[in-house]
Amino acid sequence: MSQQKRLQGLLLAILSLASLNLAAEDVARSKVEVRRIILHSRHLGAHGMGYNERSQIEMSQELTPADIPMLISFLNDSDLRVGAQFGLASQCEAAIMPVQRAVITDESVSSLDADDIMDLIADFGKCRPETQAAARAMRAEIDKLVQARQAQRAREREEQAANDQRIQRNSLKMIDPQQQKTLSPTEREEAFHRAIKAAGLENPQTPAQKALVDRMYRTMVLDEPSPAKTQ
What we know:
The protein has helices at residues 3-21, 31-40, 53-62, 68-73, 81-89, 93-104, 111-123, 129-173, 177-180, 185-198, 207-220, 227-230, and strands at 43-45, 48-50. The protein has 231 residues and is mostly helical. It has 2 domains: 3-150, no CATH class; 174-224.
């Protein structure tokens, strides 16, 4: 069986387990309540007050899957970020898919936070063995998807840079009437849009600005003679 199929099987298993853990009486707490639970779970360690497995156990007893959206939002709070990671990991299988969606779909969670959360789930004794395995597999899957997304964005930046250079070269050709004739209507329009953007005229407001943009369009795209040439 391929790794992808094994991951799918594990995810189906944890989704079934997560649905069993979502009790009907579970209600999302307020921001203040979740914050209190996170902060009260800190314990004194070698580096001062912080979070450890004892914190994770305590949060597993006080938090529920209904609190997961609030915990995800706290990942953007520098004072609560680490505590929120432990809080999410305390929910075991119920947290895996919401964290994955937050990384991949809307990028509201960083891949670094997701990796930490999956590691905490994988090492948490209160999570089922199949959940721990699914967390390890999900971490690898998230890393692979994030790397693919980064590679795609790098390609898009390169393509955009090459396209910008091409339009810039064509814009310079617009200065020479002979070279201007070698440009297609599409290339002329691209040069026109670049010119009005450089001039800050993308959204002309005054009648004079609108007239200028119209004149530039007629001259650059439609190849109509400028008013100066017709006089």
